[in-house]
Amino acid sequence: MFYRFAGGTVPYSNPTSNQRRTLIETNGLKGVWLLEQLDRTGLATLKLLLLLAFIGGVIGSILALITGPVAPDSVFASYYDERVTWISMVTICITIGLVLGFDIMLARTTEADLRYLSTASNFEVRLNSLTPKASVFFPFVAVVALLTTLASPVLGAQRLEISLIEAFKAFYAGGAPLRILMFVLFPVVGLAWGAGVAIGVTQIKCLITAARTIPIDLFQLTHYEALTNPTIRVLSITLVLSSVFPVFMFLTDDPIVNDQLTRLMIAVLLSLTPALAAWCYPTLILRNRIRLKKAQELDNLLLAILGDNAALERSCIPKRGNQLTTADLLVHQMFIESRWEWPLASHVQKLILFGLLPPLTWVLAAMMENLLY
Known about the structure:
elongated; about 70% helix; 3-stranded antiparallel β-sheet; 11 helices
C-alpha cells in the first residue's frame, strides 16, 4: 500500500498525528465497489486477508448455528449431516474472505511492482490501464459465478443419477442450510473468484504491454524481476491451494464423494492451465527480448574484436572516453554471455519449494488414508 506525502510517494507505515497522508487508491480495484471500500480502509494486505478470513469463519459458524440441520427427508440428508453442513458453511465463508483478500493483494502488489519498475527503469507504465473495464469485468464475473454455482448440483446429479433440474429442486427442498449454500454462498464465492479473474486478465494485458515496450538494459536485469513477480505470486497461490485440497478428502469416508471431489479438482486444474499459461506469457516475451538483446550485443562485440570500430557505437558497453583494448572487449563478452535470459533469478528457490508442495501433500494424504482406513 502507498500513501502520498506533499513531497512524493512512500511505502505504507503507521500514520502519526503529525503526518498527513492521502491514500492512493489501487487502480486495479476502482469500480469494484466492495473491494474498493476494503482497499480504502488502509489496512495492510496481510492483516486485511486474515481479518476477512476470520470474519468469514464467524459468519459461517453463525449461519450453521441458526439454520439447523438439513431436512431429514432430503435426498442429501445422508451426506450433509450436521458436521459436513457446518464444515461446508464455515469453509465456504472463509473461502469468500480469503478470495476477497487475495483479490486485493493481487491488485495492490502488482501495482506496487509496476510502480517500482517504472521508477527503476525510467519507463512510464500506465497504471490506469490496471482498472478493469466493464466489458471485461462483467462477462468473467458472470461466467465464473455460474460455473461455481453449478458445481455442487452437477456433482449431486451425478451421485444420485438425476437431472440437473432435479438436483436444484433437491437442494431447495433440503431446507435452509442447503438453500443458503446453493443460492447464496456458492454464487457469492463465484462472484469473488470472478472479480479476481477479471482483475487478473486486466493485469495480464498491462504486463504484456510493459514486457513488449520496456527498454532492455543488460546491466540491470534484476529490475525486470518486478515484471515477473505477479506471475510467480499467482503460481505460488495456485500451488498452495492445490496442496490444501487433499485435506478435504478426510471430511468424509464416502468413496463416491471423494471420487467426485477428485474429478472436480482435476477439472479446476485443467481449466486453470490456460490462465496460468497467460500469466507466464509476459515473462516469455521479456525473456525473448532479453535473448535478442544479448545476441545483438554479442554480434557487435565480435565485430569490434575483429576490428570494426563502428560496431562499438551500436554496443551497450559503457563509453568512458578511453581506448578499449581487446582484453576489455573479451571481458565484456564474457559478462554478457553470463547474463541469464530468464528474469527469475530470485524466484527459483520459491518455485522449487511451492512446486514440491502438491505432490508431497498428495503422498502424505495417501499414507494417512492407508493408516486410517
